[in-house]
Amino acid sequence: MQNTSRAKVAKDFPYNEEAEKAVIGSVLLSKDALYTVLASVTTEDFYVPRHRRIMEAITVLFNRGVDVDTLTVAEELLNMKSLEEIGGVEYLQTCCDSMVAFANLDHYIAIINDQSCLRKLLATIRQIDKQYRTEEIENINDFILKSEEMIKDATEKRRISTFKKTEQVAQEVQEIIKNTRELGEDDVTGLNTGYEGINKKTQGFQRSNLIILAARPAVGKTALALNFAYRAATRAKVPVAIFSLEMASELLVTRLIASESYIPLQVLSTGKLTGEQRIKLGDAVKRVGGAPIYIDDTPGNKLMDIIAKSRKLQAQVPELGLIVVDYLGLVETSGKGKGSDSRQEEVRKISLALKQLAMELKVPVLALSQLSRDVEKQSRKPQLSDLRDSGSIEQDADVVMLLHREDYGKESKNTAGNKKMSELTEEERAKLSFGQKQQMLAEQMPGDASYVDVIIAKNRNGQTGNVPLFFYKEFGRFDTPPKEWEEKMKEISNQITVD
After folding, report:
1. Over the stretch 14-54, which tens digit does the pLDDT of each residue have?
2. What structural domains and CATH numbers belong to the chain?
3. What span, in angstroms and rounded, lies between the C-alpha atoms of 331 and 321?
4. Helix, strand or coil for residue 92?
5. What does the H/E/C string look like for 323-348?
6. pTM for the full predicted model
């Protein structure tokens, strides 16, 4: 039985009547075949009307726990007032006779699935054509992207995935382990984040993972995301895609140059550079310009745009190693208007779609998100429940990182009159919290440094906990705390323990 030669066409829609009869016959004759068929095709995959009615009856019986055979199906069809319509018991017997060999069942099921998929594809193409001819199209790009999604939805189930036996999977895992070099202390199994502390807890950003980086506005989440992207591009040497919905590409690259050159952003914006800074600028421009980073700052990028452009970029650059979306709050699933989803529902769709994109492309997706105002009102460290708009972000994400800065939102840098730690009296030191002491020591570093806690609040396959980083705000740069700071913090921690 060949898919092409025996297929019929009705109103330009293809189907294979003999394959449908054979599959129904197998179900009537064998319980094993029943399980195989119901796990592989649906009633809607059958094109011939009487075959659909028979499959409806079979499904009803199966759901009731009644044995499926010619007599029980005939009785159910009689109750449905459809036995005569399908050709009576005689036609059911004809279906049984059509099943020549059970060994061919998978082949017949594949034919039905292929024909069903092709019908859906043709129907979708006609729907797109009708919309183009009869409806007003405000934005051609949106129309094309929506059409692409419709076609993808119509064809994505053309093959039902099958179970893998653990024996097969175990062998695949063994091969992966064999091909993985022995890991050293600083090595990771995923994409190197560029920060040792984060690597130790996450083993890097893993393929197919959705990573959420969340903070209140102006804490530094965009700066840290840029640092992740730049270090991935220059140290791990993988191409990185950045979708910037809030900031122009020129400003993003300016930030990268400031971070790489250690020239303050304010100085770069005025152009008043010293001779030494001009040399540093030239070197930084070459290094940043040579990094394989692709930035899309198209205004109003929608979810479908991000998905379509990511697929296209990976087709052009197969080594794509990281996708950054800045940020979730500005992504839209569709145009606003009557009947549009609530923001919570939109965020649910966005987070799920980004997770699916990560799995489809086998690339980590880093998405930025905001935290609720409760963090500021209550003056505390953020937690998972502070993720804004929807709990689905927490559910869909593999890793959630929350940023906390001790000096965020405070008018004065510290509570001791901006004195240095060494200038404080014992009484003044005693009044400071541990976090304030961390921040005071950070402020003595060049570049307007702030101490930042990267709180890994969720890690599906690894450790959670806090990772300390320094945020040099003048340069938009995050770095691991210097040894001098770590040693002083150990002294303070020891003093607290003794006290």
Report:
1. 999 999 999 999 999 988 888 888 878 889 999 999 999 99
2. 8-155 (1.10.860.10), 189-334+342-498 (3.40.50.300)
3. 22
4. helix
5. EEEECHHHCECCCCCCCCCCHHHHHH
6. 0.66
